[in-house]
Amino acid sequence: MAVFTPLTDSQVETFLSQFDAGSLIACKGVPAGTENSTFFVTTDRRELVLTLFEQGEHEELPFFVELLDYLDEHRLPVPGPLHDRDGIALHSLAGKPALLFPRLPGKHPEAPNLAQCRALGDALGRMHRVSQRFPGHRPNPRDLHWLLPMHHKVLAYLAPEDQTLMKDEVEIYQGFFGDAPTLPQGAIHGDLFRDNTLFDGDELGGLIDFYNGCTGDLLFDLAIVINDWATEADGRLDPARYEALLGAYQARRPLEESEREAWPMMLRMTALRYWLSRLLVVYVDPPAHDLTPHDPEVFRRVLKRRIAEGALPLPEAAR
């Protein structure tokens, strides 16, 4: 159960009284999630999501509030946080930072179809177009600068061939991205897996959980998406989902030539990013709560496929 701080109805009622959101009818803990406590809140006027932030850098929460406000103002399908009667969104509840959001429709797609891939590509392309003008800034916490020191922490737990694989890849990325031109930057989601989206049938209900959001390469965000959404269980890219997602994305934001050149390497680097982060959770920094870590082998498999097979051709941007 991913509710690490239980709440009473009285606590939630007092919290809600600061907002113009109606009176509490029910509050139910949500069993999903690995870092924060989440509750579905029903009032006499609407359905809401209440999040308590259990860990992480709390001083960075204003960045996430400002980013979600900005994207919501630009009509992106994100849960813009509720602000109280004084215009403040971020509050404290049970001694933890807390935010209240509208509950968006839909559920996580386990096996996304082509229509869902097109919907996501369209939304991400729209988001990246407007996010380049977002004035806030938060450095990417999981980019190449993170890989360099952190990969040393897991090497002792790997077989010799995997130690070599990881060290060689990091060295290759240093050489490639160190000499490459600067890629287009903007605010990115940073973790847009299937379980961070909601779909009502083929209609995208929302992009959620922006707590890895940061400023970084837009291509980094897109590569994370493809390595999850358009990848088979054996690590291979699925051509139809790949084409659907990237075609819809480029109809909104065509990739620049520098991005097209960096694309195969970015797919590799983001695969290693998740292989490494999952290894760190298993061996170095286990979760504070009794939760099952994600399997690192998934992204080791993806990485080896990307090395062996490269990327599929990128679709041409619509003219």
TrEMBL record:
Superkingdom as given in the UniProt entry: Bacteria
Residue ranges annotated for the Aminoglycoside phosphotransferase domain, each copy included: 27-255
InterPro entries per UniProt: Aminoglycoside_PTrfase (IPR002575), Homoserine_kinase_II (IPR005280), Kinase-like_dom_sf (IPR011009), Pseudomonas-type_ThrB (IPR050249)
EC number: 2.7.1.39
Primary enzyme class: transferase
Pathway: Amino-acid biosynthesis; L-threonine biosynthesis; L-threonine from L-aspartate: step 4/5
UniProt GO MF annotations: kinase activity
Family: Belongs to the pseudomonas-type ThrB family.
Name of the protein this chain belongs to: Homoserine kinase
